Amino acid sequence: MDLKTAITTRRSVRRFKDKPVSMDLIRKLVESATYAPTNCNQQLWKFVAVTDPGLKERLVKEAFSSTIVRRAPVVLVACYDGWSYKEAIQGASFAAQNLLLEATALGLGVLSMNSFGNEEVIKRMLDIPDGYVINCFILVGYPDEVYKTTPVVSRRPVDEVLSINKFGMRHATHRSYDSRRWTVPDLVDFQRYYCRKTFLGKRMDVMDDLERELVKRVLQDLQGKAVLDLFSYDGAYLDLFPKAELTSVNLDPETERYVAAAAKDASIKGIEFEQYDGIAGSYDAATMMLKAERLPPELRKGSFSLAHEHLKQGGTFVIVSRVPNLFFTLFYRLIIGMFGDDVRRTGIYAFWGPYRPVRAAMLRRELRSAGFIIQSSRKHFIIPAFFNQALQMFIQFRKSGGSSYLHRDKHVNILTRILEGIIGLQGLRALPFGSVVVLRARKP
Ligand SMILES: Cc1cc2nc3c(=O)[nH]c(=O)nc-3n(C[C@H](O)[C@H](O)[C@H](O)COP(=O)(O)O)c2cc1C
Which among 196, 257, 272, 300 would be 20 to 30 A from 76, CA to CA? Predict the structure, then answer.
């Protein structure tokens, strides 16, 4: 394989065939790594190849490594003598990239991974001396068949990342939780790159089973109708729609492709697509599932007017949105207080992006000013149901020393049990002061 092909076809592989990788191949990979540049040619890198399944299990169970580790035939722990931390990271990273390209050229699948778990525990487990930095884990195996058909994730065009003599490029100046600070281009950029970290159609949203149940129940009267779904985003809710003529509205063609892949994955047939600024036709119903809180206000209001314009007379607009209540607001403040007002600092960014719960009264006002009549407005879940997921992520984050929050075994302790119990007790019934609102509005 020539270099350019290896560079452009390398991709992160997270599922492997059940086929061992020989130590000869691993030696070849590491040999290529040793040709990387290094500070004063010191070559301070070391690789520990973990092949023993029992040891991989201990990495997951005791060091809280990502559970993907279990699936890889070989886990290379890439370390570097960290006497000069910045140089250690640079040297180890150049070496890792050589290794990734060599693996690709040899037909192997590789994943460089930061969610390796608790560094101190791993060092003790593998006898890695003090002073060494674990740069990353590199999982090695033969790629699962699925990788033959899924395309590589989006790449930014060169003009977006290269400027001459001066940093003169457009870039997002913030990644605030506050959706009022986001522009539509920022949102599109976020959807196109941050969410697209694995493969098209991968569902990224965090929601509890009870919330999915609620959405499913809310959508059930749309059976057989022509429905316009505003901002299907990662397609996470499409499988909850009853059989309907579904048209998905998205902000840009890349997101459309993503939703199409998610629909295919969920075996949803006949889905149509419209771009936000080019909708034609008229519909019996419109839906906005857990998106109102993620949109800059102008876009939210604009999309309400658009729904009104494209609904038939008497058509319904159904919105499910998270809204602030005591518990949600406390959570929201706590997250910002602990991690700062930057969505990238918590796992939440990948799924939510900007995220600012909007009061139900405000949504009703905006719907009325777009020309709708409010038919019903009911709240659910005083304790937000997704707290179950948030708690799981937080426990994983703590136990893994801050390196991982996804791909975990379920944590069970007294707190997770109590929380699950309380959330389960609330059930799906409408409750005052809930954290999720279900709004139904009609075009008169
Ligand atoms: C510093 C770094 C950390 C990463 N950590 C993880 C990780 O913990 N888990 C994972 O599944 N992928 C991880 N990746 C892989 C990225 O998600 C992936 O490289 C990126 O989405 C681009 O996709 P591609 O590698 O298929 O081109 C990491 C990559 C880098 C460079």
Answer: 196
